[in-house]
Amino acid sequence: MADQEVNSTYSFEVQSYVHVVEFCPFEQSSQLVAYGGNNRVSVAKCVFPEEDKELGDLEYEHLRDFHHGTRVDAIAWSPQTNINTLPRVVRFCTAGSDRKIRIFSSDLKEKDSIQVLEGHTDYVNDVVFEPTNGEQVASVSDDHTCRVWDLDGTQKAVMPLKGQGVSVRWHPEDPGKLMVAEKTGIIRFYDIITCQPIMSLDCGHAPLTSADWCRTDPLTVGAVAGSDWFMWDVTRSSRPEDRRQVHPEGAKNFRWCRVSEKLFATCGRPGNQVKVFHKGHHQTPVSSSMMVQGGLSWHARLPVCAVGGDRVVHMWLAEL
Predict the structure, then answer these.
(1) How many angstroms separate the CA atoms of 6 and 289, rounded?
(2) Which of 247, 274, 279 is nearest to 263 (CA)?
(3) E strand or H helix at 190, and its extent?
(4) Is residue 314 within 8 Å of residue 54, measured between CB atoms?
């Protein structure tokens, strides 16, 4: 049965094409969203009717633009971000098409700073902050390395990979563990102290383009490779326990919902499809095609999934 097209529940217009969009995953600043295009990163505040019953629609407030100077390929938020205290702190990092990582810090008034991290010799595909105190950043690249950095730009570790690194995730509860997904179809878990792999998963398929660690169930990992999504229970086997064809001409992104281990989203071709799945059911609560598509992110406290488009960010509210 064909998936039924579902229009986005909410949207807001922006100035240019959106390559990547990222909700802040930390509860104290869950209303923040960052999105990036060809030469800037923007930060906005979104309040949904599901959070404030007095609202009839999405309340969107643009907060700040940051000059980037190159295409934004990935965005990650720091847990040090907090807009509920004074001075306000907004901190996030980006991967740029110039192979550099930038850490942006701002009080959303007069004080902005940028720290540039240099060392990767090919495209940087993903970045992530250590989720408990935000004092380190991890990155993966086409240069077959995963690197861990201090905020001042010092490289703390370089882990050689067997293939191009496509996704990196810190363990949701244990800052001593790091997950790295390679284009070859292998997902490895590293001890951050020894920088040695402690276990691995194999989807048996390539190219793997995206993987994610489930925040609400850290024993569950998902990924997309080729045209399929794959799912693992890491306590059972290195082989996936479930898989399904989802995008016949190639899947691109995989993201778990941050409030339920039952929901996840994928993006891929033909066209620029976005699909939301309910684990354990064959139904697809959301399926939508757009002219262009960039990025994929879930809200920290709501089952709301966001995707960038051509001068617009679309968001879908999924049923739990």
Answers:
(1) 9
(2) 279
(3) strand 186-191
(4) no
Tens of pLDDT along 250-278? 999 999 999 999 999 999 986 788 999 99
Residue 33 to residues 75, 134, 165, 295, 305, Cα–Cα distance (Å): 10, 18, 25, 12, 12
Token output for 213: 């660690």
Phi, psi for residue 241 in degrees, rounded to 5: -90, -15
**pLDDT band per the 50, 70, 90 thresholds, residue 163:** very high
Residue 292 confidence (pLDDT) above 70: no
Q: In angstroms, what is the C-alpha Rg of the chain?
A: 18
Distance CA 81, CA 90 (A): 5
Backbone angles phi, psi at 90, to 5 degrees: -120, 120
Residue 264: both structure tokens together: 């996840």
Structure-token pair, residue 176? 């001593």
